[in-house]
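Table 4 source record.
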Amino acid sequence: MKMIVDHIQNWDRYSLGKAWEQAFEFLRTVTPEAEEMEYSLDGDALFARVMSYPTKEETDEDAVLEAHRKYVDIQMALVGSERIACYPIHGLEEKTQYDAERDVQFFKYESKADIQIGVYPGTFVCLLPQDAHMPQLNMIERGATVKKVVVKVALDRLEL
């Protein structure tokens, strides 16, 4: 399966099981006014984080290129927009070893990604373990604030 980028109203075109449905029950009801925090939807198997931050450039020192093995990310902007640069995980040079406790591995940024996804309110992107991604990137203006939600779904709970 490949990453999914679509409008929220099309979420049910992807038949990925009960955890997918639970994730979108939350995504369809979360509002821009949602408190910035972690929301437990089904214990460690399914949870969401609402956060805000200023956007940046790929070359900024604090920009991170990451991938996950245990969880799938479903990301959606609530306020503002951001760009997510996506890279196939093969061919990337490791920056850190995989941290199983945090479910993250970081990679070295070497060049602009061929795949650039604009994430706006009403759209979502589903990133799988093979999709290394650099979120929090500016669309037009560095430092523009985006508020978004990331739903983490345990990979073994999806019907892929």
